[in-house]
Amino acid sequence: GAVVSQHPSRVICKSGTSVKIECRSLDFQATTMFWYRQFPKQSLMLMATSNEGSKATYEQGVEKDKFLINHASLTLSTLTVTSAHPEDSSFYICSARSGGAWATNEKLFFGSGTQLSVL
Amino acid sequence: AQSVAQPEDQVNVAEGNPLTVKCTYSVSGNPYLFWYVQYPNRGLQFLLKYITGDNLVKGSYGFEAEFNKSQTSFHLKKPSALVSDSALYFCAVRDIKSGYNKLIFGAGTRLAVHP
After folding, report:
1. How many whole angstroms separate alpha carbon B86 and alpha carbon A49?
2. What is the mean pLDDT of chain A?
3. In chain A, which residues have their Cβ closer than 8 Å to the Cβ of B45?
4. What does the pLDDT look like over A78-114, one tens digit per residue?
């Protein structure tokens, strides 16, 4: 089946530094990718929708200047947490859509997540 | 607004017994419903989805879900639970008002299957 690779799986950084997380679709092209944030024992909260070749669409309350999203190719989207602070510590998950929107073969595939810890 | 509710934080089942993980939804129009499973420190894995057709949907790993329009429910079921089924389960509904077909997830239900 389709695979989405997310890297790194775990990162520890100092407060004030920036961290980049990569999400790759390995065997399909994904025009749309989604970035989620998950707090311990809580559900996934959609942060933004990333579209290849255009600006990301951010959910209400998500700072676009803090969480920079780049979808430069059909197989790669990156999330950069800029000037990270301890409150940014969380589990970040990406997903990539295979197939066209509303197509019968449309599916979402999820990366394995990135645990970010900001000291 | 589209939403899903998972009323149980945790479900405990003995191995070999049937299991049910509950989900109710609130949507305008026809619902597009999904179940995903998450193992510790991992992303989500797709189990099954309902878009149209038969109310009983069969998915991966022996799971199935029953769509009930009158009760606005989409409960996940399995006839005989395995210890390896222990994980976090999410019900989700597609936000049809979103141009990108984003999913709205429930709070999740932790399934614990005991030997």
Report:
1. 30
2. 89
3. 110
4. 999 999 999 999 999 999 987 665 555 667 889 989 9
Neighbour-count burial of A105, counting CB atoms closer than 10 A to its CB (0-12 exposed, 13-18 middle, 19+ buried): exposed
**Tokens in use for A109?**
């595939």
CB distance B100–A111 less than 8 Å? no
Nearest-angstrom CA–CA distance, B69 and A51: 34
Alpha carbon distance B47, A119 (integer Å): 36
Peptide bond into A8 cis (omega under 30): yes
Rounded to an integer, what distance in angstroms lies between the CA atom of residue A54 and that of residue A71? 8
Inspect the interface and report whether the beta carbons of B43 and A57 lie closer than 8 Å.
Answer: no
The secondary structure element, H or E, covering residue A51 is strand A44-51
